[in-house]
Design a protein that fits this description.
about 280 residues; alpha/beta; 5-stranded parallel beta sheet
Length: about 280
Amino acid sequence: MDVIRVWERRYGVVTPERDEAGRRLYSDGDVSLLALLAEATSAGRSIGQLSGLDRSDLEALVREDRVALRSRIGEVGPGPAPDQWVERALELTRALDGPGLEVDLRRAATLLGLAEFLEGVVAPLFRRIGEEWHAGRLSVAQEHLASVVAGSLVARLAGSLAVGTADRVVVVAAPSGEHHEIGALLVSAAASGAGWRVVYLGPNVPAADIAGAARQAGARCVAMSVGYGNGRVARAEVAAVRDALPSAVDVVIGGARSHELEAVTGVDRLEDLESFVAYLDAL
């Protein structure tokens, strides 16, 4: 968010409205424009070069960057299998090599496509990172670096996809006590790829706010990521979201410790992103 505010103040790339409390309110157009700018800057362009371009020129530059990336990747062959990408990413995480990790993950996304990249690389990578962190073999700094790099990329991928229709809205969040957002970002990208409009609330969101957002957005589904936070708190928060919404709104959970919440009435637990997408399709 600090980068976005610098872009607003110094370059005027977006001018969000504000609510009564002074908080910024970004439109769908603002969000998609910021995603384009983030992708263009990640390819090496400066925000100063980009801020004066109209949207069509910016989109053309991003398309050129994507073609150039695919061309560079094609020169070095088809690339590793998903499990090999995971091992490479884990080693780059251990080395605190953020730029190398971003380049590798971008290559994997381009070669594998969104669905296989999310399900076959990012999701297992963060399962491994969670296991290594709990075993004391990865530091907090290493885990945070991987989360920032991968989370930023996944958010850009999700933002570059078409916005779904008003009758296909899913609210995605990590409930109170859950401070890691990579799981929720993966769910957002998977839902966007499946043609749903995503209202992404981020991590550590109180139950009342999740339910309120679902009602305001007319959501058909609420998806919550449950990682390594306090299980008792997560159970209470998920149950509170379920109780606050009509039965017509589906509530689903997933994540490393979601199995501990299987007993929450009216909530479906899904094992992986593939199951989540199949669930949305069935709706």
